[in-house]
Each structure stands twice: as structure tokens, then as C-alpha cells.
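The authors assume throughout that readers already know how a fold can be written as C-alpha cells. For illustration, here is how one protein appears when written out as sequence plus C-alpha cells:
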Amino acid sequence: MFGSWLRATLILLALGMTIATPAHADSPGSRFKLAPKDIVDTITSPDHLTHVDQYFRDAKDDRLLYQFWAFDADHQHGFLLNRGEDTDLAGYPAWFRFSPDSQWLVRMQKTGAGFQTLLLYHRSGFKFSAATRKPLGDLAWDYFFDQPLSRNMHRYRKDRDSLDHMQTNLVKGFDDNYAGMGQHWPDSRYLVISLSFDSQGEDKPGPWIEDWWCVYDLKTGTFSIPPDFAENNARTVKMPGSDTP
């Protein structure tokens, strides 16, 4: 009798553990196809221990749905980067860049025609976690609209598309800590982010920006504008009726 009770107890415990800690798939499954490498961005971490693959399947309204998977070198351990995202973030392929120390991953994600944002991940072994509470691109826009420069610019709202073609881009140079820009920053410490939008959808267009720069500190999670960015940022403000294309 004791043996039967013990077996039943162990079965119940096993079922309870299964319910409490549901397993997550570690591969895309048969519904998703590997995107051709000549079409999408593929990247391997500088330490060669992990790489990112992109998969897709057909979705509603003739759209595609993408999954972005980080795998180890032997393709044994898989981690889904965009788990639970809506179709605005998963409806297009992406571009990726690793930090020189392989511990940070930036995802440059198209979200619509002329729209792009950034997402940031931190790596721990073969797993990745979101490094910010919302997309890094959203945080960069929050920072911009706290600057005096933005005082006469209309903040984007979903119920009023006053900012058109909002783009958040990673400025080239993350791979070498922006040495090509003349910087001498600590290894894998900073991201240089570029912001752009226009106001062509407004009845009375206001000023807009093209390629405005700021810096994100990966260690402290804060934004700043280095003094040597001032000249570039002064040129980024465009006014309605100007001859600037």
C-alpha cells in the first residue's frame, strides 16, 4: 500500500511541476521557414558562441510573421527573442548588431513604411532578456521630447499621426566602439542613436528633424548628448518652406 501511495504522490508532484513551470519550445517548429540569408540580416556574435536566425510564416491579410531566434554554435540551444510581440513588431524582418564584448544585442526593427525602432537585449549565456522596459526607440523619443529643441514640435500620438516616418536608427560604429567617429569610449559601453521624422501629414507643418543624435549608456541606462554632437544636431532641424529636400 505504501508503494502505491508513493507512486501516486510522485505522479501528482510531477504533474504539478509541469503545470507550474510550462515548457517553452526551443526551436521555431514546422510552421516557420528559415528566411534566405541573401534577403535577411544574419549575424554571429564576436565570441562566435551564438548567432541570430530569422524565420517567417504566412499571416493574415497577405502579411508575414517573423520570429528571431538566437542559437548556440551547434544549434542545440535556441532562444526566441520576440516572444509575445504583436504584428507591428513581428511583421517585418530585422537587422542586428552585437556589442564588441558579445553581451548586448541591438535589433533594428522596421514597423511600417518609413517607420523603424530599436530594441535592446542583454545576453546571459545562451539566453537573452529585454534590457529596457519598452523598446529602446520609444525611450529615445521620450528623451528627445524632453529637450528644449523639441518645444515647437508635435509629439506623435496614435490617434493623430502628427509625426510621419518616425525612424530610430543605430549609428554605424557600434562594432568598434565608434572609433571611426573619433571617440575613445570604454569597450561596449555606449550606443549612438539617430532620430528622424517629418510632418508632411499635418495641415500646418511644424519643424522636424533629420538624423538627430544622442547617446545611450548601456551601464547606467541613461541618455546624453556629448558636446561634440552639437554641430550635427544643430543641422538636423528642418523648417517648413525651407529649400532643404
Residues 2-20 form the longest helix (19 residues). Residues 25-131 form one domain. The chain has two domains: 25-131, 132-245.
